[in-house]
Amino acid sequence: MNNLVNLYLRENDKVGQVINDGIFVESLSNLYRMDLVKCNITHLDMNVFINLTKLEILELSKNPLFSLPSAIKVLPRLFALWMFQTNVTTII
């Protein structure tokens, strides 16, 4: 999966159960866009996006999130972060 650049998991409620279990491993390091809309994600670990250094677009809308990990701040290429219809008020 090293060549994968777009990952669409929209409306997959199982993602919320496994997202912090190392799903975004080094083999996904070429991702440019990730769609996690309505995946029932309730929290994100601090290092969940650590291997996604090429990620430019991240869609987290319609998830019951209250905060984002500080790891989101260090995604060097991120320019679009969509979080409508969430409860996010802080980046920790």
UniProtKB/TrEMBL annotation:
Organism: Panagrolaimus superbus
Superkingdom, natural source: Eukaryota
Annotated protein name in UniProt: Uncharacterized protein
InterPro entries for the chain: Leu-rich_rpt, LRR_dom_sf
